[in-house]
Amino acid sequence: MDQIQEIVRTQLNAVHGIESVQLQNHIYGCFVLMEDIAEKKIIVENDEFKGTNYTFQLDNQFSQIGIRYGFAMDTKLLVTTCLPEYKAAWLTIFKSALSLNMVDQIEDGVIESIKTCVLPDLAFFVHALDTGTLPQEWINKLLSLLLEPVAEKPIVETPVVEPILKSILSEKPKKFRVTKRHPVLVTKFLGKTRRIKK
């Protein structure tokens, strides 16, 4: 249980701005999935979630968990930055024999990580815990983030260098690819968790 808390903390510290919101939305979706698994509302077979009328590819569609089960279902909130350890930890949890008690322990640890790592002006997850929806003020903040134009990167000309130097300079560091809920009607953009704000 402590492992996922530490991994989430590491992942949260690695992202900022809209990527932080993407991750918080993803974690919220993971909470919903854990609760559904523990309550036997969905089953996990191999790498698939199987619900009443749908199948979800756990490994291939991992980045979509937030936009399917989170507090906001907008494709701009698809997780784009994800450490391999973060994904591996959640996949292990989803495939384990989850009880509601285990889910509560995992959620408590992850919520603590979120509260300590996420800046107050980006605390979307914490504000969604109360009712499963964002208050109007936070919906407005989210819309501002989602509608903010993406700054174009300036074009930098590469100087001519010796072949060996050029190959050294061209090597780039590898980038990481980066609750028991109350029954509700799921709207187009909202997920519901049983967690209450503490």
Description:
This protein is mainly alpha-helical and 198 residues long. It has one domain. The protein is built from 8 helices and 3 strands, in the order ααβββαααααα. It has helices spanning 2-13, 18-38, 65-69, 84-95, 100-117, 124-129, 136-147, 163-170, and strands at 43-45, 48-50, 55-57. It has a 3-stranded antiparallel beta sheet, with no helix packed on it. β1 (43-45) and β2 (48-50) form a beta hairpin. α1 (2-13) packs antiparallel against α4, α1 (2-13) packs parallel to α5 and α2 (18-38) runs antiparallel to α5. It is globular and about 45 Å long. The two termini are 20 Å apart. The model is unreliable at 173-178 and 182-189 (pLDDT under 50).
User: What integer value in Å does the Rg equal?
Assistant: 19 Å
Helix % is 40-55%
Structural class: mainly alpha
Task: Enumerate how many helices there are, as a single number.
Answer: 8
The outline comes out as globular
Quaternary structure of the protein: single chain
The separation of the N and C termini measures 20 Å
Quick summary of this structure?
By secondary structure, the chain is mainly alpha-helical. It has 8 helices and 3 strands.
Helix and strand arrangement:
Layout lengths: L1 H12 L4 H21 L4 E3 L2 E3 L4 E3 L7 H5 L14 H12 L4 H18 L6 H6 L6 H12 L15 H8 L28
Antiparallel strand pairs: 1-2, 2-3
Helix pairs in contact: 1-4, 1-5, 2-5
Question: Which descriptors apply to this entry?
Answer:
198 residues, mainly alpha, 3-stranded antiparallel beta sheet, 5% strand, globular
